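Design job #97: recover the sequence.
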């Protein structure tokens, strides 16, 4: 292995940088969140209220409602992995190219 070898695998889906509002529904209730980036397989959000990792949630934005798993938390930043890939036409419906 050389010094220039990448250790992290490349992302398989293109993420779109956005600044949108959404609602994250947890067992503890609904929380307004800011969506930082979005792809067909997951999203990065900013959540001001405390969330726990390794939980199931629903992310709602407009007509889109996606079941997700909280993959990681770093401060207010939260990484979500969707259980089902979001089709391109559904991404277009919420304003993503």
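Job complete. Output follows.
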């Amino acid at each position: 292995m050389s010094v220039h070898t990448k250790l992290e695998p490349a992302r398989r889906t293109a993420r779109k940088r956005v600044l949108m509002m959404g609602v994250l529904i947890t067992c503890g209730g609904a929380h307004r969140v800011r969506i930082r980036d979005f792809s067909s397989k997951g999203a990065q959000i900013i959540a001001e209220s405390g969330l726990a990792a390794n939980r199931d949630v629903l992310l709602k934005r407009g007509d889109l409602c996606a079941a997700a798993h909280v993959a990681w938390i770093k401060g207010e930043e939260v990484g979500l992995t969707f259980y089902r890939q979001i089709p391109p036409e559904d991404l277009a419906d919420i304003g993503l190219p």
